[in-house]
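Box 3.1 A note on notation
Throughout this textbook, protein chains are presented in two layers. The first layer is the amino acid sequence; the second is a token string describing backbone geometry. Keep the layers aligned when reading.
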Amino acid sequence: MPPELLRKGRFDELFFVDLPDAGERQAIFTIHLSRHKQNPADFDLASPSAAAGGISGAGIEQAVASALCTAFAQKSTLTTEMILAEIHSTYPLSVTMREKVESLRAWARERAVPAN
């Protein structure tokens, strides 16, 4: 964005939202499972939350959605293992664009307020 759009008065602060930590990932799994009428208590959310390190909230949402498609195709109920399989088959942006993510984090450390 042009600097004149980022000055105080237009935006009071610049916030940086980093990738979610383990606790945040677990909360995101809970949200998306609930949205799809799945009871989060029926899943071992610690496992996919740990496995999803480096995956964004949108990536977690897609893992749940893809696992639900798998369950539907197999005419079975969604399982933690199906979610884990989707996570393990994903190459998140934090991997494919590692240098850009690290560059953005370095920029944000000196110029933005952490929002996590």
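The CA atoms of residues 19 and 56 lie 5 Å apart. The first strand starts at residue 15 and ends at 16.
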